Amino acid sequence: MSGSNLASRLWDRIRRRDDFEPDLGWVLDDSRRKWMAEHTSGVTKPDPALVIKNLRRTFGGLTAVDVDHLEIQRGVITALIGPNGAGKTTLFNLLTGFDRPDSGSVLFDGRDIERMRSHVRARKGLVRTFQLTKALTKLSVLENMKLGAKGQVGEGFARSLVPPLWRVQERAIEKRAMELLERFSLAHMASEYAGTLSGGQRKLLEMARALMSRPAVVMLDEPVAGVNPALTQSLLEHVRELPIEGMTVIFVEHDMDVVWDISDWVVVMAEGRVIAEGLAEDIGKNRAVIDAYLGSGQGIENPEEEAP
Amino acid sequence: MALAAIDWGFILIQTVETSLGLEAAVYALAAVGLNVHFGYAGLLNFGQVGFVAMGAYGMGLSVTLWSLNPFLALLVGMGFATVFALILGVPTLRLRGDYLAIVTIAAAEIVRLLARSTTLGEITRGAEGLHGFIGPFRELNPFDPGAEYGIGPVQFPGNQFFAIVVGWAVTAVALVVIWQLMRSPWGRVVKAIREDEDAARALGKNAYWYKLQALILGGVIGGLAGMVQALGKATIQPDSFVPAYTFFFWTVLILGGVGRIWSPVVGAMIFWAMLTFFQGTLTAMVNEGLIPTALMDTSQVSQIRFMLVGVGLALLMVFRPQGIFGSREEMILDVR
Amino acid sequence: MAGVMLLMAAPAIGQSSETVGTRLRHQNEDGERVPVEGVVISVTTTDGSEVGEGATDSEGVFSVPVSGPGVYLVTIDVNTLPAGIRLREPDRTTVEVEVLESRDGRAIFSLISGDAEPMEESGGVSVRRVAQLTTEGVKLGLFLGMAAIGLSLVFGTTGLVNFAHGEMVTWGMLSAYFFNYFGLAGVFGFMAGWWPPLGEGVNLIFAAILAVIVGGATGYLMDRWVLRPLRTRGVSLIAQMVVTIGLSILARYMFLFVFGGNLRFFRDYSAQSALQIWIIEITPKDLITVILSVLILIGVGFFLQRTQTGKAMRAVADNRDLAESSGINVQRVIRIVWIGAGALAGLGGVFIGLAEQLSWLIGFRMLLLIFAGVVLGGLGTAYGALLGCLLVGIGIQLSTLFIPVELKNIGALVVLALVLVVRPQGILGRRERFG
Ligand SMILES: Nc1ncnc2c1ncn2[C@@H]1O[C@H](COP(=O)(O)OP(=O)(O)O)[C@@H](O)[C@H]1O
Ligand SMILES: [Mg+2]
């Protein structure tokens, strides 16, 4: 509840800023490029969880990410959209430490995390999922879940040899894992190998697993790509609930209906840059233009994995 | 008629002896280490023989050089293997898996070349190998060196029997430790890293550190294999650590089924049974003139043995990567 | 088949009890190889205890029986060499010989014309020695590089580290040896007695050409019958790597079986007197092989840079999926890469054999150095492989200024580990995502 309250206050404030007009119908013509050059810094937010400054990553001659300024508001759902190759996944990699930028910095809760390695960032609460799911196929679904929990005593080498030290904690973790699996309708699969899940179920599992650690920021890279419509609905329900539990959500999605449906704020990227950001409602008003821009047939970036 | 001239009984006894004896124990132990590396942590260690050598030399030198007691010698041997693991792991475990493979195969050969070099000859006794360290260990031998131990026709002299018992006992301890580790959260993380390192890191696990721990653990177990071998043979020879032996261990592991707790033991027994039977038969055939000496002599039988393992490894990897008993569904090793 | 085995095994069969010794021969001005008599040779075990000493006989042979397999040191007394004959490598007065069961150990001293030089430079650092060692290093580096490009391209296009690549090097070397001594009859026994290239040994130059063809064919067969089926079965790269290891062990010990553990030389050009170029000494054969390898490497570079197929190779190495979707026949490119890799490895083997000695194990030793070079230069980049190998070659030779010769290869491998710490992508490699 408090999450959505905060959101509405935030949006009101942002709306009143006169230097910003959400304008999302982007075709990258020359006038747009000119506009981009003039609007290099993003919109400031009242309470950003993440602040990205002058972040650049190039591959050879190709600039995959070049973000001058971007803030991600705490406690709301931010959608990251943009055509294929816009640099969304690369941006995720940079934020989570899976890739190193050429220059620039990322502040998480006001602290520069540039020097933190990926697993440390995850422990600090910056947890992601992958565009191509990474279900640990030779582990059971339950084991996958348990892996997500933070601060496990039994993960130390010496302590792992003394089960009494970790058995109680393990049971608590198992209980929470089962609750989450229940919520994600995977409980019946708990003892199966994750490899036996369908592509959609793997997406669910990966998200549930990420939630095991009670993250501060959840970053979902195309959580519903390749998932069948019925499962998509339940997945989105879960995403929608996350801010209520106090989490900040960033997700990449191509399907405008989905974006419109669940996001509070939308960031549009193209050619590595943030070309616009604004309220989800305003995107809605510009639906037609957005569709033209993204191309209606481009909903799915990767004709993603395989059935089970 | 000529086949009847072959002493099949002798060959069979030898077959049983090696598949229960020192050879199998050493190989089982080395493969247990490899199983930790590859089967559980997914590390491509192509230089396990280097760990075996480090353990053996660590133990031997403790006695010949520093006159330590057997218990300390054991610790030193394990220390040598640990240091070797650190040298290999620290630079490579951040990189793609093939780097570890390249570096381990090279490093194992460095160990052998150094051990047999004249530069270190004062210490390691060069190509001739290390002798004269066995005394303090033999004092611990509860069996009568003059007597023979065993069942029926399969008999081992007391000193040998001691090493065999130690070998299997150490193997048993190692298996219990690994079994416990692998059902703990630690094992869960290690297995997750095998499956997908990025996924583990995204969940806050320090993949590098776990891989290093696994490399050390498996390496130390490999070192123990070297110590058992030294105990049984009473000598440590650099050329008993040629690179190809690493792949004997691999063959053992794949035979038994990668990533299963018992696989190294089962694999080592089958491996040695097959190898000894084959070698015995071939040697007998050469001796009986069934194979003309122009084609090969008995000294070449061991070369054939290497070739056979080479082919066997390649074929196993392609056609039965799950091991000879395993089923494809529960196969840990993802060959697809 | 039996005939093949028989013929190939014949040169390897030794007496039943082992001896250690040497056979000294020297190539005179007419190119004849004449025995060198009366040179004092001593044989010791590695810890220095004496096994035997004596002078070479009229056949240039000296040997003593030894107690069994093991490693022995054979030392030549250079002061007893006849005037006008000296060791090609003045520092190598003692040679380590490995005696295998039922195999004689024979030390090889290469003798050349010229008077022994004063010993002033041994151990010290002089301009002359540095120049000489650098030359040797460039030579080694070029040969390694020639073999390495194939390894690197196979890795680049398929992602596979081919652990059998060293055996492809040995294979080239040994097939040249057999053509050199026996011609095609060395392979097809029934041809014995036919006219040369078929029934008799041919000059090494032809033998080398045949060896390159054999190498290319082997590369083709490796791809066609081993790796392509594995790829189409979807077998993982790790499993493929293990398969190449199995094959390398098979091949290595097959070489030992057929060829024996002794070191050998090609029939032609094995002992040559060195030319003096500025302050550097180099034998004509080394000079020629160095020039040839430079030309060949330039040719390979041209091929990669300019031809349609070469560009396709680089495209596949760069981004396989992209290449495939832009209409490149990836399987064909990989096939050509394998053929080229086999041919170059074979030729590299011939050159290495010509510069040093032939042995069943040399390919594996070289493979470790090639790995060092390839990682140093950047895994998967053809030019990086070459650059890295040159550096490794030069580094190895120059390191002997400071460390014992027997440890020189170890130095290269230590550098390999250091490179991985400092710059894992190598000198020319692209920065990837590393942890
Ligand atoms: N490892 C890499 N090497 C080279 N280019 C890359 C790499 N990763 C991403 N790119 C390039 O960077 C651009 C952005 O890619 P990505 O972040 O995956 O886009 P998105 O997720 O928005 O579709 C693309 O042009 C892609 O080809
Ligand atoms: Mg993406």
Account of the 3D structure:
The complex is a heterotrimer of chains A (308), B (336) and C (435). With 308 residues, chain A is of the alpha/beta class. Chain A has helices spanning 2-16, 30-38, 88-96, 118-123, 141-148, 157-160, 167-183, 199-211, 229-241, 256-262, 280-285, 287-294, and strands at 48-59, 62-73, 77-81, 103-108, 111-112, 126-128, 217-221, 248-252, 265-270, 273-279. Chain A has a domain at 3-134 and 214-228 and 241-306: 3-Layer(aba) Sandwich (Rossmann fold), CATH 3.40.50.300. Helix content of chain A is 37%, strand content 20%. In chain A, the strands form two sheets. A six-stranded mixed β-sheet of chain A has the order 6-7-8-3-9-10, sandwiched between helices. A four-stranded antiparallel β-sheet of chain A has the order 2-1-4-5, covered by helices on one side. In chain A, helix 5 runs parallel beside helix 8 (199-211). In chain B, 68% of the residues lie in helices and 2% in strands. Chain B contains 15 helices and two strands. Chain B has helices at residues 2-5, 8-20, 22-40, 48-64, 70-92, 97-116, 121-124, 135-138, 158-182, 185-195, 197-202, 207-233, 244-256, 263-287, 301-319, and strands at 148-151, 154-157. In chain B, helix 5 (70-92) packs antiparallel against helix 12 (207-233). In chain C, helix 3 packs antiparallel against helix 4, helix 3 (165-182) packs across helix 9 and helix 10 crosses helix 11. By secondary structure, chain C is an alpha+beta fold. Chain C starts with a helix and ends in a 13-residue tail after the last helix. The longest helix of chain C has 32 residues, at 127-158. Chain C has two domains: 19-113, Immunoglobulins (Immunoglobulin-like); 127-429, ABC transporter involved in vitamin B12 uptake, BtuC (Orthogonal Bundle), CATH 1.10.3470. Chain C contains twelve helices and 13 strands. The relative contact order of chain C is 0.14. Chains B and C meet through helix 5, helix 6, helix 13 and helix 15 of B and helix 1, helix 5, helix 10 and helix 12 of C. Magnesium ion is lined by residues 88-89, 131, 301 of chain A. Adenosine-5'-diphosphate is lined by residues 59, 62, 64, 82, 84-90, 301 of chain A.
